[in-house]
Design brief:
This protein is mostly helical. It has one helix at residues 2-60.
Amino acid sequence: MPQQFQRNQSQQSDAAQSDEAQDAPMAQQSSKQADQSDALDSILDDIESTLESNAEEYVGSFVQKGGQ
């Protein structure tokens, strides 16, 4: 019986460590997603402010002229 109890404790300990190991990458992934989201929001804010100030010039910079 003591051997069975000891084996169960070992398995529970391994399972807990495995759960912790899986949680760490998820936290890092969430952090990366938040950083990417912030970067995207910043880019979109820049585009929006440019469009508010001079939309015609902004769009014209992407349009080819005279078959170029």
